[in-house]
């Protein structure tokens, strides 16, 4: 079996906390009013490319729904909310800035090794990994299995029309974790999507093994 999905991973638009460079996890901060114009290029890109999404998933936080309402309002009615693709929970460091934490040795260690260090009151990184893995297994794997027997075209470097397109409006940490989990030689700190940016991850299922590649 060799099947695939093209995941269009969109980080939500800009919030006040993004502007202030505060750590923003589970706090339900809305988008800035100016984000409508900031997200317009992404909306136009999606329209220009004629993207048709068979599946749409968003986290259950306000800023992802607001982003979807701006970039693809016609998809709001079909979007499925899933709390497992929320941002990482920063615990006591939620709402803090680098300048507020920079003299904390635990914070310095966490920046270098987020998978080893857990901020006080925060989500353990393995829990974060597990919930995103569970999202993939319960939401995306069934779509891949449904495509059993469909062989992709060979020799193509552009996005393959044979693969279903899945729009996922989520958070920076979730996108980083998806890429690091499935793309060879990528770690969590190698991907830094900005607010309102889109990353396309091709996820393949080969011999019951999931692997991915960045295709844009």
Automatic annotation (TrEMBL):
<dbReference type="GO" id="GO:0005829">
    <property type="term" value="C:cytosol"/>
</dbReference>
<dbReference type="GO" id="GO:0045820">
    <property type="term" value="P:negative regulation of glycolytic process"/>
</dbReference>
<feature type="active site" description="Proton donor/acceptor">
    <location>
        <position position="87"/>
    </location>
</feature>
<feature type="binding site">
    <location>
        <begin position="11"/>
        <end position="18"/>
    </location>
    <ligand>
        <name>substrate</name>
    </ligand>
</feature>
<dbReference type="Pfam" id="PF00300">
    <property type="entry name" value="His_Phos_1"/>
</dbReference>
<keyword id="KW-0378">Hydrolase</keyword>
<protein>
    <submittedName>
        <fullName>Histidine phosphatase family protein</fullName>
    </submittedName>
</protein>
<dbReference type="InterPro" id="IPR013078">
    <property type="entry name" value="His_Pase_superF_clade-1"/>
</dbReference>
<dbReference type="GO" id="GO:0043456">
    <property type="term" value="P:regulation of pentose-phosphate shunt"/>
</dbReference>
<feature type="binding site">
    <location>
        <position position="63"/>
    </location>
    <ligand>
        <name>substrate</name>
    </ligand>
</feature>
<dbReference type="GO" id="GO:0004331">
    <property type="term" value="F:fructose-2,6-bisphosphate 2-phosphatase activity"/>
</dbReference>
<feature type="active site" description="Tele-phosphohistidine intermediate">
    <location>
        <position position="12"/>
    </location>
</feature>
<dbReference type="InterPro" id="IPR029033">
    <property type="entry name" value="His_PPase_superfam"/>
</dbReference>
<dbReference type="InterPro" id="IPR051695">
    <property type="entry name" value="Phosphoglycerate_Mutase"/>
</dbReference>
């Amino acid at each position: 079996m060799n099947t695939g999905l093209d995941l269009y991973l969109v980080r939500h638009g800009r919030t006040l906390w993004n502007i202030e460079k505060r750590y923003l996890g589970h706090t339900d901060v809305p988008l800035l009013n100016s984000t409508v114009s900031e997200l317009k290029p992404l909306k136009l890109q999606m329209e220009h490319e004629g993207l048709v999404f068979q599946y749409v998933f968003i986290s259950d936080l306000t800023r992802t729904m607001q982003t979807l309402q701006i970039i693809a309002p016609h998809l709001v009615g079909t979007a499925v909310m899933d709390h497992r693709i929320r941002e990482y929970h920063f615990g006591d460091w939620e709402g803090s800035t680098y300048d507020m934490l920079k003299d904390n040795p635990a914070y310095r260690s966490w920046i270098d090794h987020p998978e080893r260090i857990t901020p006080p009151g925060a989500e353990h990184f393995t829990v974060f990994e597990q919930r995103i893995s569970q999202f993939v297994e319960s939401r995306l794997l069934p779509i891949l299995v449904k495509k059993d027997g469909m062989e992709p075209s060979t020799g193509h470097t552009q996005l393959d029309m044979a693969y279903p397109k899945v729009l996922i409006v989520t958070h920076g940490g979730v996108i980083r974790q998806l890429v690091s989990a499935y793309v060879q030689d990528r770690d969590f700190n190698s991907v830094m999507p900005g607010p309102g940016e889109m990353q396309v991850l091709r996820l393949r299922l080969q011999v019951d093994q999931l692997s991915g590649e960045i295709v844009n």
